[in-house]
Amino acid sequence: MSRHFSRAALAAVGALVALAVQPAAAQQASQIWTYWGSGAELAAIQSVIDLNNKAHADTPVEHVVIPGNTVELRRQLQTALLGGTPPAAYQSAMGYEIKTFVDAGQLRPIADVWNKVKGDEIFPTGLQRVMKVDGEPYAIPLNMHVISNIFYNKAIFEKYQITPPTTMAELAAVCEKLEAEKIGCLANGGGYFWSLYNFYAPLVSVVGVDGYFQIARGEMSFTDPKFKQALELYRDTYVKHYLANWSGKTWAQGGDDVFAGRAAMMQIGDWVSGYLKDLGFKPGEDYDYFPAPGVGKAVLIQVDAIATPNGSETSNAAADNFLTTAASPEAQGAFNLHKGSIAANLKTDPSIYDYIGQKTYATMQAAESDNAVLPNLFFLLPTELGSEFGAQIERFAIDPSDETLASVVEKLESVRVELVDQGAFVTW
Amino acid sequence: MAKEKPAPYERGIWVVYLLFLALPVAFFLVFYVYPVIDTVLTSFQRWNGLSPRRVDVGWRNYLALFDDGRFWNSLLNNVRWLVFYLFVPNAVGLGLALLLDRMTKGQSFFKIIYFLPYTIPPVAVAAIWRWLYEPNAGLLTSTLSAVGLGALAPNWLGDPAISTYSVMGAALWWSVGFSFIVYYAGLKNLPQECIEAARIDGANAWQAFWKVTFPLLWPSTAIALGMSSVDAMRLFDIVWAMTGGGPAYSSDVLATQMYDVAFGRLNMGEASAIAVCLLVAAAIVVMPFIVFMSRRVARGVE
What we know:
The complex is a heterodimer of chains A (428) and B (302).
Chain A: H1 2-20, E1 31-34, H2 39-55, E2 62-65, H3 70-83, E3 89-92, H4 96-103, H5 111-116, H6 119-122, H7 125-129, E4 132-133, E5 136-137, E6 139-141, E7 143-146, E8 149-153, H8 154-159, H9 168-180, E9 184-187, H10 194-216, H11 225-237, H12 251-260, E10 263-267, H13 271-279, E11 287-291, E12 299-302, E13 305-307, H14 313-327, H15 329-339, E14 342-343, H16 355-369, E15 373-375, H17 383-398, H18 402-421
Parallel strand pairs in A: 1-2, 1-3, 9-10, 12-15
Antiparallel strand pairs in A: 3-13, 4-5, 6-13, 7-12, 7-14, 8-10, 8-11
Chain B: H1 8-42, E1 45-46, E2 55-56, H2 60-66, H3 69-102, H4 107-115, H5 122-132, H6 139-146, H7 163-188, H8 192-200, H9 205-216, H10 218-234, H11 237-242, H12 254-264, H13 268-301
Antiparallel strand pairs in B: 1-2
C-alpha cells in the first residue's frame, strides 16, 4: 500500500511542478500593452488595433490592458522583460522614458518603420526630438496633448465681461476680479503633475525657451535667481488664486469645479475637453481655452507613443506592422477622434477635430513653423528628478512660504547635482 | 512474544512526507528566501530595474535613505498606522461584537452589514472614499454643511497634516469587520458560567466585562492584534490608491515609498534598501505574534 501511495504522491508532485513551469512566452507574442482600459481611451486604441488587423491579417495583434498608469505599466513591463516574455509593443511616454529603456538594451530601433512612414516629414520637429535617442528613432507617437492651455467657463467670463488674459499681470487681475465676486478663479488637482504643468508658464516666461532646455539638460542650477523668480511668479499668479482645497481633488474633480461654476478656469491638458463634453458642455459654446500667458508662441505638449521591445521574429514583425499602421493618417485620425487629442501625424485629416481640436491644430501648426513645440519638461529630465520636481512643486503650491521655497530649491538642487555626477542628463 | 516487524506502510510513510513537503519547501525557497537574498544584494547596488548592468555602491543607498526626510516620515507613518490598527479597529470591532451579542433579533442582518466592507478590495474602498472625501461636494463635507458645520469640513485628502488620518478613516470602515467577526466568535465561545458567577458576586456590567469577559477573550485579542500588526506593516493598497502617498509625501508609508522609488523613479537599489528596512521593522513588530501562535500550535499538538 505504501508503494502505491508513494507513487501517487510522486505523480501529484510531478504534475504540479510541470504545471508551474509551463512557459508563458508563446501567449504574449503579439500583444499591445496600454493602460487605456475604459471609455474613450479604450475605444481610441481599439480603433488602431482593428485597422491594423484588417491591413495585416497575417500578423494580428491584441490589446491587453495593464490597469493603472505609467508606474503600473513600467512594473509589469519590468517583470516581463526580466522574464523574457515582453509584449510585441507597448504604450510609452516620451523622452527620458524611452532613453532609459534604450540604454538598458530593451528597445528595438525602428529606423526601417520610421523611414517607411517618413517620420521626419510627418511629425513635428520638437516631437521627433523626444522619439529618438542619439538620432535613432525608437517609438511612433500617436498623439499630442497640449498642456499649456487654460480652459474656462464661458458663462462666467461673459457674466463678468472678462476677456481672456494675455499676460501674467492680466491673469492675476482677472482672478482678483472673480474672487471679489466670490467666484473661484483657478481649479487644480492634487498629485505629481498638475501643479508642475501650471508652473511651466511662469517658468518659460522668466527663463525663456533656452532656459527651459537648459533645465532639461541639467545646465541650470535650481539655485539660479531666475528659478526663484519663476517660483515667486507662480505663487503670485497661480497659487494665490487656486480654489480652496484643490490639493484634495483629482484633476477630474477640478474639471467638475469648472463645469459647476465653482471655478472659472483650469490649466490642464486638453483631455479635460473630452471630460467637459462628457459632463454636457459644448466646446466653443459653454467652454473654450486660451494659451497660458507667458508661454508666448510656444506650445507645451506631452505624448503617447508606441515602442517595441526586443522580441521573437514573429513578435517583431507584428510590432513593425502595428507601428506602420499607428503612424498612418487613418489610424491617427481614428485614435484622436476618440481620444480628443491632436494627431502626431500632421497630415491627418483635421476634419476629425471638434471646435477645440481645430483651434489647437491651428496653434500647433503655427508653433511648428516657429519651431516652438516644447515637450513636457517632466519627461526630458532624468526620471528621478522629474518625479521629485513634480512633488516639490506640489509641496510649494500647498504651502508657498519662503521657507518651503528655500527647501524646494535645496532639495531639487541636491538631486540635480547627484544626477549630473552620474552623467544622467540628456542633451536634447 | 517476539517484537513485531514494523509494517511496510510505517517504513514508507516518511518518503511520502518528504515528497509532499518538497513542493512547499521549494516554493518557500524560490519565492521567499531567494527574493529576500536578492533584494538585500540589490540594496547595495545602483540599478534601474531594466538594464543588465548593476553598479556596486556599497552602503550609499542606505546612507541616502537615512539622510532623506521622506524615509523617516514614511517610517513614522507606519508607526502611526501600527498604533491605529492595534487599537482603533479592534476596539470598535469589540464594541460592535458586544452590542450584537446582546441583541436577540436581527443578529444575522447586522453581522452581514458589519462584515461586508471587509470583503471589498482595498482599491475599490479607496475609489469609494476618494469620492466621499471630495472637499466641496463629497458626502462627508455635504453632510457637515447640511447640519451647519460646513466650516469645520477640512481638506480631507489634500491637507498634509491630516491626509494620513483621513485614509485611516477609510481603513477603519473597511477593516473593522475582521475584528468584529473574531471577537463575535470569541464571545459566542465564552463559558457563560464565569460571567454569571461574577454577576452573582455583585459585579456591575463594566466590572464583569473588564475583569471576566475581556481576559477570557485573550485568544481573540491575540489574533486581532497580531493581524493588525501585520496589516500595519504591509500597508500599501489603500494608501497608494487614495493619495499615492501624497500630498507632498505626507501620507507615504514605507511600502508606497518603495513602490514609487522602484517604478516611479526607476531606482531599484534604493527601493531595495527601503524593502530591507521594512523587512526588519516588520520582523520586530510581528515576531511576538508569530512566537505566540507557534507556541499555541505546539501546545495544541501536545
